[in-house]
Records
---
Amino acid sequence: MQRLYYLDNLKVYLTVLVIMHHAGQAYGNGVPPSRMGPISFLLTWIVRMIPGVKRVL
């Protein structure tokens, strides 16, 4: 049986998505992502992963 590599890529993508979602819940600022915009939400999440950062926006 031939291996389906696109399923491996999908599995990795979904795993990263779940990890980012859970980290966003733990380190988020309480504003729903729909009110922030996707770029602002992603940048806020990335910066908040840096130790010692309390508030970004």
---
Amino acid sequence: MFDLYRGRGLNLGDTCKVYRNLNNQRFSVVATSGDHKGKVVAHTDSILLSEVKFKISEASRKRALRESTRNVHAFAIGKVVSLTSQPHNPKMISVTYHPFKLPYFYQIPSMSPVSSTPKLYLHNGKAFCY
């Protein structure tokens, strides 16, 4: 399911930042340009991004560790390819981020760091790169 937020727009090909929203258990999509730059434009259960880079705000990560609380400080930044569920791809590799375990995004189960990926599929709270 995909819902625009407050009537804001999102188009295929737009570059955006995406994070997992712990309040609504969905992904929040933040515009990186245009009238709504820096603001949430949509919430979705599934999104496919290309040319993805993973970004973590080190200062916010340290604050989360110091206060023992989660905050929004880690994003996947990429171009929107699709806003619908995708068929399973056997080449998909599970990726996650947990600020209290490691200071970077990493593959599961190898725990190898991941800083970028050609494609990232986010679905039902999980992330898969391929």
---
Amino acid sequence: MNRVTLAIIALFSAASMLYWQVLQKRDNNQTQVQSVEARPDYVISNLSSRNYNAEGLLDSSVTAVHMEHFDTSNMTFFTQPVYLVYPNKGTTQWRLSAETGHLNKNTSKVILKDNVVIDAISPSDPIQSLSTSKLELDLDTMIMTSDEAISIKGDNFSIQGKGLYADLNTQQVELLSQVEGKYETN
């Protein structure tokens, strides 16, 4: 081999190594950017928060064992959330609890999953307890919906069905299909 051939091979080898280094740095930067995006902007343990409406009345409050908020998606994820909602300008109170949940602040919708239980705080309410595996609550309209199996318990009655539409402001609850009920007299 002559010197020109060796110089060309050395030049291509050096160019290949430089190109490989540029690709490695770009891959590392993309990995770092992705890992930063996947991290929550803030994390809270033992959360307790209250939300008020424009008139200064309590709309809802939430407690959770653990909370993570992501600013980029405006999503908040909860572990063992407990929501207290006050429809009708704070006159009626409901307690919603679950194993997990998330709040989309763009839509003001809360989705609760796994062992979802809704309890009436007042013992005089006709419906005392409602349970399901997944529930969506619109905090603006106070409307709850679900496509899952629902179990309702009240004074002397129980009802099972599939699917739910409930307006907490008017206290109207509708099971959408496969409804079965049992009423017991004292």
